[in-house]
Amino acid sequence: MVKLLRENVFVRWILTALRIWIGVEWIRSSLTKIGSSVWTGSQAGIAVEGFLRSAVAQSVGTHPNVQAWYASFIKQFALPHARLFSYAVSFGELLVGIALVFGCFTTFAALVAVVMNMAYLLAGTTSTNPNMVIWEMFLLIGGFNAAYVGLDFFIIPRLRRFVTLFQPKGGSDSRHVRKLSA
Predict the structure, then answer these.
(1) Per residue in 113-152, pLDDT tens?
(2) Does residue 12 contact residue 106 with C-beta atoms inside 8 Å?
(3) Using an 8 Å Cβ cutoff, are 33 and 40 in contact?
(4) Which of 128, 148, 125 is nearest to 11 (CA)?
(5) How many CB atoms lie within 10 A of CB 132?
(6) What is the pTM assigned to this prediction?
(7) Rounded to whole angstroms, how far apart are CA atoms 78 and 92?
(8) Please, what sign has the CA dihedral across residues 90, 91, 93, 94?
(9) Radius of gyration for the chain, computed over Cα atoms and rounded to the nearest angstrom
């Protein structure tokens, strides 16, 4: 299955369509936030604060939707910085969406998307988050095949060449290779 996702040309086109669709969904979600005063305007942080307070409220009872450790993180870190999280979520969603649509640093963008979806799930929401995580995992497993039809086709080879400039010349450095005795 992994080989199919990473090497098959037909699957490449499916992953490309999936990547663009997920990117558009992230952009659409971000634009509703960026255009709202309670997300990025004069009252930035109000929407996030309401969302986070709702998550904390779901952390009590016999079968809580939000785990206690996550509710503690929300209370001690996220709520005091609700305004910062408001901007981070709004523009983070936009940047992830743009990166996925254009196929630019696709694997990293898909990873950030999974992290954001998991944060929303841990906060007790479902919506499209479980579905998005599953689709984004296909992009992660597909690796470069999911990004082949995109800017990564040009960026990744150049980035690899740039990184090799800083590697030791003449093969591996013998000081860092553990020798196995026969």
Answers:
(1) 999 999 999 999 989 999 999 999 999 999 999 999 999 9
(2) no
(3) yes
(4) 148
(5) 20
(6) 0.87
(7) 16
(8) positive
(9) 21
Q: What is the pLDDT of residues 48-79, one digit of tens each?
A: 999 999 999 999 999 999 999 999 999 999 99
CB 44 within 8 A of CB 83: yes
| Block residue for tokens 């998307």 | 113
Q: Which residues of 60-71 are buried (b: 16+ CB within 10 A; e: fewer)?
A: eeeeebbeeebb
| Residue 168 DSSP one-character state | P
Q: Cα separations (Å) of 113 from 32, 39, 72, 84, 95? A: 17, 19, 23, 18, 10
Residue 145 and residue 5 in contact, taking contact as beta carbons nearer than 8 Å: yes
Identity of residue 6: R
- What six digits make up the tokens of 86? 């408001």
Tell me the H-state helices in the chain. 2-7, 9-34, 46-57, 68-73, 82-102, 106-122, 129-142, 144-147, 152-164
Which amino acid, one-letter code, is at 84?
Answer: L
Written as six digits, the tokens of 14 are: 């499916």
User: In terms of Cα–Cα distance, which of 98, 100, 106 is closest to 156?
Assistant: 106
How many residues are listed for the chain in this entry?
182
CB 23 within 8 A of CB 96: yes
First to last CA, the chain: 36
